[in-house]
Amino acid sequence: MNQVPTIKLNNGTLMPQLGYGVWQVPDAEAERAVATALEAGYRSVDTASVYGNEAGTGKGIAASGIPREELFVTTKLWNGPSRTWDRDAVLRAFDESLTRLGLDHVDLYLIHWPRPMRDDFVSIWKTFEEIAASGRAKAVGVSNFRAEDLERIAAESPLVPAVNQIELHPLFPQAELRAEHARRGIATEAWSPLGQGQELLTLPAVTALAEKYGRSAAQVVLRWHLQLGNIVIPKSVTPARIRENLDVFGFELEDGDVAALSALGAGPAGRRIGPDPAEFDV
Predict the structure, then answer these.
(1) 246 contacts 205 by C-beta, under 8 angstroms
(2) Active-site annotation, residues
(3) Is the pLDDT of residue 1 over 60?
(4) Which stretches within 185-237 are classed as H helix?
């Protein structure tokens, strides 16, 4: 089994640096996909309320027979515009996620989007403080937060997010935000670490490195993330690809190759493929 390194979060919790993501995996397929990933050697699984697959994810975890203490489970609050996110609503949503997962706690609970135009993520974070203090989430954090959003939390709460899960890949390397995380003691986690579709993985700069190292393009990009210190959660429902994405600890990229991949997204904006957190409120 691959020995996945861990990242020590700012509250001392250990998080595997490479996990399995289930975004866009239908609930009916999630049980099999998660069971396959856990059998392959993954010990971290990332889901979210809005993915609609917490129940299937929980069934896959239960079917694995792996002791709970060996697993790291992340889910997220979908703080959408359909309701007012006061304390009771946040706590109810958290309870509902635990029920769907069939768990009595998660290892990481994230605010899915800042939605700055709603001006409520600080009050939501206050309830996250309560959830963290209860022990029902070993760590709490955020997702898609910008530097200015992190500053708002720092100004109004003593609890520093353990993680900020953001879009991050060589076409959008987010160097400034990663530096901000490092300054604040926040771990950087990458969603869509391989980009989306085949654009990134078929770039000549990437395929040349895959040939150089005798690895797939996806393995080269995942290795880039790991050497930068990012936490990654690649997604696949194909058993062979699930195993391939985990097999990235037997080689290292040369420093110049890491820099060359980082340069693919050089420029003030990079190549964002997902929504802009400054504007997203769906």
Answers:
(1) no
(2) 51
(3) no
(4) 204-213, 217-228
